[in-house]
């Protein structure tokens, strides 16, 4: 059984149906691609919210998967999702880039909603089932499951960073979160440093005795219930899907078209992000603007395409960031555009994967300037799409991906001069060097795709010892 905040399907309304016929389609994204085949094969079920507030749905099947919807009210969305998940935990876990807010009403809602997800699992899981809980929205679910169903084998994977204890310390409910996670047999993280941060917090805030990244967890009666282990499992992408799209003639043609529509500049730079303050979009724009100001780049030679897909738009920090970015883009374009050329082509949309791959093929330089990122799958997708080993990846040191993509042009996005120099290095990268770097990065990713990730996690989880006294 997989448990995540969102079910792996999106609702759609068909355009041609006059009465707006509705249906479900599988959501894009690596996690769904990785787990869907396994779920259909093993008769597994997926527990999650279906995306519409104030609507209770019965379990249903889609694409061979059993889906168990969890209901969220409008107020749950406000307090549990927008509030505690995305205005408390998200900024706290991303190095407090934005100030986290701590509200007791948000925490109460987080606890209640986590309990609702756990109840759905308890109701539907077979005896001895394996349950895999996903991400920071559901950190209390493992211990809730452990208490109700000691027969289950419980895994948890945190897709975002886990902060150092000095930062985690701010959280008024730090102890409950640590205990929630320690309900799992295996707690997976993106990087070894995230796993180490978690174990340091377990030691510091609940006095856990940690040996070799393991804790003997005790129940209310003081007896050891299980051993919880923390380990890194860096997530990846659906390599075959991206590689196949990158070789499809219509997509290659589309990438040419994009280039032509921009007036065939010598260099296309590309940024693709959710519109999120962790992504360092303002830093990237500042560096690009200064390069234009100094004449190291010109709009005739270079265009920056920035795709910023809409995200969490009801959360204040996201609205402020959007205003800031759009102000900056307007300022840069107003100063540097000519009748023929534009400096920044800014797109506040999300696109289907086909269009994304066409953009990757069109881009000579990919800019990933995140200030903190659990992994960053865009970096891995770009490299995978470059099947002819051309192009350059400018990659922030503060991404999980930097641990694996050591041949990227790594930089610190806070250092604007360093970022500018790295962008210029990428623009002028000799073809030999670009080929050498791309080849080595592609090999790393091809050997470690998202199936590899889920298989590694699940086999490590299968090795954990489950005590079943029931
Ligand atoms: C990150 C998180 C995911 C989340 C996604 C999109 O990748 O790790 O859990 O689903 O962002 O954010 P959203 O708030 O739209 O679900």
TrEMBL record:
GO biological process: trehalose biosynthetic process
Transmembrane residue ranges: none
Family: Belongs to the glycosyltransferase 20 family.
Spans annotated as Disordered: 1-27
Position of the signal peptide: none
InterPro entries: Glyco_trans_20
Keywords per UniProt: Glycosyltransferase, Transferase
GO molecular function: alpha,alpha-trehalose-phosphate synthase (UDP-forming) activity
Gene3D superfamilies on file: Glycogen Phosphorylase B (3.40.50.2000)
Record has Transferase as a keyword: yes
Superkingdom in the source lineage: Bacteria
A Pfam entry, by short name: Glyco_transf_20
Name this protein carries in UniProt: Trehalose 6-phosphate synthase
EC number: 2.4.1.15
């Amino acid at each position: 059984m997989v448990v995540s905040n969102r079910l792996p399907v999106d609702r759609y309304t068909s355009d041609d149906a006059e009465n707006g016929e509705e249906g479900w389609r599988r959501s894009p994204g690596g996690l769904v691609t990785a787990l869907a085949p396994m779920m259909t094969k093993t008769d597994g079920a997926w527990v999650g919210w279906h995306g519409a507030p104030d609507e209770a749905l019965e379990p249903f099947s889609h694409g061979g998967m059993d889906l168990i919807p969890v209901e969220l009210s409008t107020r749950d969305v406000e307090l549990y999702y927008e509030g505690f998940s995305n205005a408390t935990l998200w900024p706290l876990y991303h190095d407090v880039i934005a100030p986290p807010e701590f509200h007791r009403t948000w925490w109460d809602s987080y606890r209640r909603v986590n309990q609702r997800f756990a109840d759905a699992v308890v109701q539907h899981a077979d005896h001895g089932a394996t349950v895999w809980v996903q991400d920071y929205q559901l950190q209390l679910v493992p211990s809730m499951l452990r208490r109700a169903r000691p027969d289950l084998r419980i895994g948890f994977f945190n897709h975002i960073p886990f902060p150092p204890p000095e930062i985690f310390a701010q959280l008024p409910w730090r102890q409950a979160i640590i205990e929630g996670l320690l309900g799992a047999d295996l707690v997976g993280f993106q990087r070894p440093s995230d796993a180490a941060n978690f174990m340091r917090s377990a030691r510091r805030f609940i006095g856990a005795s940690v040996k070799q990244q393991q804790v003997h967890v005790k129940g209310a009666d003081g007896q050891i219930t299980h051993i919880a282990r923390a380990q890194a499992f860096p997530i990846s992408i659906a390599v075959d899907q991206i590689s196949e799209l990158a070789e499809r003639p219509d997509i290659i043609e589309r990438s040419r078209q994009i280039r032509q529509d921009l007036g065939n500049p010598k260099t296309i730079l590309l940024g693709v992000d959710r519109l999120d303050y962790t992504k360092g979009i303002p830093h990237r724009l500042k560096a690009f603007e200064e390069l234009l100001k100094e004449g190291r780049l010109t709009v005739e030679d270079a265009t920056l395409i920035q795709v910023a897909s809409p995200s969490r738009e009801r959360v204040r920090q996201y609205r402020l960031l959007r205003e800031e970015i759009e102000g900056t883009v307007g300022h840069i374009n107003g100063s540097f555009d000519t009748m023929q050329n534009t400096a920044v082509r800014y797109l506040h949309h999300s696109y289907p994967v086909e269009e994304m791959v066409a953009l990757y093929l069109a881009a000579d330089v990919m800019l990933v300037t995140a200030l903190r990122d659990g992994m960053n799958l865009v970096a891995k997708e770009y490299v995978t799409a470059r099947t002819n080993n051309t192009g350059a990846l400018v990659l922030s040191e503060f991404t999980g991906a930097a641990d694996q993509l050591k041949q990227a042009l790594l930089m610190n996005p806070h250092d604007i001069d360093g970022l500018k120099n790295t962008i210029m290095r990428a623009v002028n990268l000799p073809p030999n060097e670009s080929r050498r770097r791309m080849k080595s990065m592609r090999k790393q990713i091809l050997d470690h795709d998202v199936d590899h990730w889920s298989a590694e996690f699940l086999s490590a989880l299968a090795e954990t010892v489950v005590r079943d006294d029931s």
